[in-house]
Amino acid sequence: MARLSREFYSQDTLTAARLLLGKYLIRRLDCGEVLAGRVTETEAYIGRCDKACHAYNCRRTPRTEILFAPPGHAYIYLIYGMYHCLNFVTEPEGEPAAVLLRAIQPVAGLDTMVRLRYGDRPLTPQRLRRLTDGPGKVCRALRLTRAENGMDLTGDTLFLCDSPEDAGLPGSEVPRERLRTGPRIGVDYAEEARDFPWRFWLEKEAQ
DNA sequence: AGAACGATCGACT
DNA sequence: GTCGATCGTTCTA
User: Which nucleotides of C are covered by protein (CB under 7 A)?
Assistant: First the structure.
């Protein structure tokens, strides 16, 4: 289990967002159960130059405070009154920036993720496919809310690593031909920044 | 104090 | 494809 270090998060946000593809996200619940997923989609947000970033122009408010902390912390906020989004704080301390986690592929704790997402509703093939393919869904499936905002990603409760604790899974390397980039989702209000190609994802395996 | 808005999702046509 | 839910955050006054 090669846990990603604070130095990893301190690099520039576009690089971090791209390198995070294929990494494993580990989430330990209060009960001790470990959930894990492989990162398949990210977006970069950079306060200094990005009107889509909550900390654009280094805007410092109670909500954005954690973006000014040292790299390697979790930034989790409520969106649309109902959902949460998980980010990883990047860049050297004082440069407000983060990588938004948009999607993972479940690797461990699938049953628990299903329960957290759907409760007792029946699990259809469609629901299984869409279990963790959006930022709000990921937080729901991993039981992440504002209560976890500010968590240190070098700790034991929530962190990223190159390969999960129990082997038998592929490493975090990803073939170049599966890498994609494009404009970010849901930032049409952000003037010129709406077109920045700051979304990164892994194309699904050839069918 | 009040208002506007949102880095989403799921139900529905 | 469209649309409404729902409430914390932020800004204005």
Answer: 5-11
